[in-house]
Amino acid sequence: MGDTEDGLKPKKLVFVTVGTTCFDALVRAMDAQTVKQELVRRGYTHLLIQMGRGSYFPTKSGGGNGSIAVDYFTFSSSIADLLRSASLVISHAGSGSIFETLRLAKPLIVVVNEDLMDNHQSELAVELEERKHLYCARPHTLHQTIADMNLESLIPYSPGDATPIAKIINRACEKAVRKALCKIKGVRCVEIEAALKKITVLGNMDRKVIVKAVRKTGRRAELWASSSSSFSSCHCRQEDPPSPKPAASGFWLSCF
Amino acid sequence: MALNLAISILVIGIALTLIRLVYVIARTGKPLKPTGRGASQPIGTLIVLGSGGHTAEMLNLLGRLPKDRFSSRVYIAAATDNMSLQKARLFESSLVKEAGEKVVEASQFFQIYRSREVGQSYLTSVWTTLIATAHALWLMIRIRPKVILCNGPGTCIPLCIIAFLFKVVGIRWSYVFYIESIARVQRLSLSGLILYKLHIADQFFVQWPQLQRKYPRAHYVGCLM
Predict the structure, then answer these.
(1) Which of A160, A168, A256 has its CB closest to that of B146?
(2) How far, in whole angstroms, is CA A4 from its chain's centroid?
(3) What is the CATH number of the domain that holds B111?
(4) Do A218 and B35 touch (CB under 8 A)?
(5) Sign of the dihedral through C-alpha A173, A178, A179, A180
(6) 3-state secondary structure of A200
(7) Residue from B43, B212, B223 to probe the interface with A (highest A Cβ count within 10 Å)
(8) What are the chain A neighbours of B121 within 8 Å (beta carbons)?
(9) Would you state the pLDDT for residue B93?
(10) Average pLDDT of A131-137?
(11) What is the pLDDT of residue A98?
(12) E-only strand ranges, chain B
């Protein structure tokens, strides 16, 4: 609201990015009068195009008189700042640009490059459009999308999480160790806390045998505690006869 | 007589190779085999990076993995791709900062010839894949990783196939985790398809439920990004 000098509206920036690719069709589409008029009608005042390796240069313009100010550059290391300052982002369909924009919760139109050979990129854009996180367009339908879009209906994207997959990747080790330990006579329960790298073994057995068994699987283990406390979850055989005095032993485990 | 002997040796050789092959495929995806030795040496993790979002996804995943468990990390990216290794170096140095005084194992960075550029035709990519494979073989002999993490760039194909051959020959039993890129919603990438169909990937992850329905051996783990 501060820069309303000369009756100018506050700056509303449209940032166009093609990433590291060459996407002249998009730059050309942005340069078209129909698209610019549509952007002006929507209240945008500035258009900044990151054109990458493309060879088509849009016409620069200072704006004013109801037209939009146009500027361009090829590459920049401060894309993130530009994304942050934009009111609308128009991007190529690369997953990097898409998720960077979605994380900043900026309205996004993804334009699919129809010239690519194996056009798998549209898959992601179409799927995310179905989930109403963004709008998906083609270079020749861009002005239509800008005219029809309703930015309020977009649903903010909640970032994904790599924790579940990291857990599964960890578990491959866990399984092997558990299997090896459960085979030992006298072992009743094996509890593995992957995060703490801790195994607790319940049963009547020689501690050295446990360490040896873990070592046999290619990992290392060393004893850290020994007590006679019991714990809830059991992962080994169920049908073992109750032993008179099961002892729990803990081991540090180094996996993989 | 000598011919007979040669033929029978050949037949036995082929039969043994086939049996070994079947055994390796059957064991793929099962928990790591006991190795006996190797308990004391550091265990290498090979991370295959690639432009076009692959690196960002991979580093995102690495951030969630226990770093001390997957120690002595080796990063590989295509020779034409300068950004990925740079990002990986940044990631590693941020880890060093986080760890503070603790000594962090040196991570290594390699570049590899690419098997197929974006937009290159499948026909010419046969030849470039051969060259890339030879280079990959040299690197794999040097690295001999225990765990391989890859998420789709074409460079991972030669590496994973070599890892598989290492298993068959008995040089190194490695574990291949393949995480299909988030950009793949309906169809697997060529790399993913090869690793899935040939049973090379021990664990196969996809980020969209549609793919899991089509490829039942894959795990659906939700979006990584």
Answers:
(1) A256
(2) 38
(3) 3.40.50.2000
(4) yes
(5) positive
(6) strand
(7) B223
(8) 117
(9) 86
(10) 93
(11) 92
(12) 45-48, 73-78, 108-112, 147-150, 175-179, 203-206, 219-220
Query: What is the three-class DSSP state of A228?
Result: coil
Parallel/antiparallel/unpaired status of strands A247-254 and A220-227: antiparallel
**In which domain, by residue range, is B193 found?**
40-220
The answer to whether residue B12 is domain-embedded is no
Please check whether residue B179 lies inside any domain of the structure.
Answer: yes
Q: A204: distance to nearest CA of chain B, Å?
A: 24
Burial class (CB in 10 A: 0-12, 13-18, 19+), B143: buried
Total number of domains constituting chain B: 1
Give the residue from B208, B151, B136, B201 showing the smallest Cα distance to B181.
B151
- Cα–Cα distance, A198 to A200 (Å, whole number): 7
A95 contacts B57? CB cut-off 8 A: yes
* Residues of chain A with C-beta less than 8 angstroms from the C-beta of B189: 120
Extract the residue ranges of chain B whose pLDDT is less than 50: 33-41
The residue extents of the domains of chain A are: 9-153, 163-254
Architecture of the CATH domain A9-153:
3-Layer(aba) Sandwich (3.40)
Question: Residue B39's pLDDT is what?
Answer: 40
Q: Do B69 and A94 touch (CB under 8 A)?
A: no
Report yes or no on B11 lying in a domain: no
B10 occurs within a structural domain:
no
